[in-house]
Design brief:
This protein is mostly helical. The protein is 60% helix and 1% strand. Helix 2 runs antiparallel to helix 3 and helix 14 (248-260) packs across helix 18.
Length: 398
Amino acid sequence: MQISTQHTLSLINIIVKSIFPDLAMHMQRTAYISLIIAKELNLHKNIIENIYIASNIHDIGFIDKKWSVTAPKDIVESEYITEHEANGVIMLNEISIFEPALTIIEQHHISWDATNPEKYPLECHILHMADAFELFTQSQLDNNISYEDIKINDFIEENNQFPPELITALNKVIKHDILWYRLASAQLEQALVDISPVKKNIISTDDLLEVCQLIAKIIDTYSNFTMSHSIKVAKISRFIADKMELPLESQKQIQIAGYLHDIGKLYIPIHILEKKGRLTASEYSLMRIHSYKTDEMLSQIEPLRNIKHWAANHHERLDGSGYPRGLVAYKLDLPSKILAIADVFTAMAEDRPYRKGMKPERILDIIDEEVQNNRLEKVVFDVLKSNIKSAYSIINKV
């Protein structure tokens, strides 16, 4: 599996877009503006890469359920503006490939001081200006936009907190039609992939694990009923794969599938996810969509094609009674079967706001019945059963 830094940025954008589409678009437009300005300044390759990474995820600190229906332009003046930078750094500080971008993210709302022009790195000012300029142009973008239509002098007069060389660079790049066409285009995401300075930066599976753990935290905090569920499924899946002595790389990829298996739930309304009673037929039908949405979301990241199947198959059953495809045993590979049992085990073992987790003995009885009915894989179940105490302790430690 070869996956790049750009793939991880695209994956994060897919997640953000599902719960906060305006913010996702704002960060992509800001990334494009930042990249064009950095290139105009002919900065070093590493600096351009760091600016690009930072701008793609600069407002990730806003990812919180209470902001999910708020547009970026509406929260600029809120008290949370002073918190989201630090919150973003906290969310990202365990991801090695993003470490060089953290300072830029943490200080992307600072102002330039002519008396102390080198107080902050130029990268911070570039992101700040791109961020502000994107918000300024939001209401003016359409398919027929041109430089002449933008009241650029209004922006410059209203924003004198940027270094003069950045204003000069901005004045140059905004005269090219391509900037406006791309900012207004529904295909901006693909344009970013095409011109990305990090699309050839191949990362390790361990790096991807760090990114996907962050994504799992975002998924799990979306609903109070599933707090830490994805992280637990990932750990149980990796635990079973290890006990089955699968190759180390396969174990890591199965863990990644565990982190991502429920990303489709970001499209399910909260009132359904958090309903305490039995779901109605229509509600259950809507809930079932989540595994298909997981498949749909991960299909956009081509290197994750195997992981996509494992993650999306966690509700499939050997007898064909599962969903979304109704796959039967011979069409389900071992990682898919591991994810299915890990998900069932975790769901029953973990505490939920409306009930305590079940005891190991009861869980084994229920899964054993599923195995006897040819719904879950016996080989995987036998491994779980033989290591039930260790598996149960993993649930309680997360």
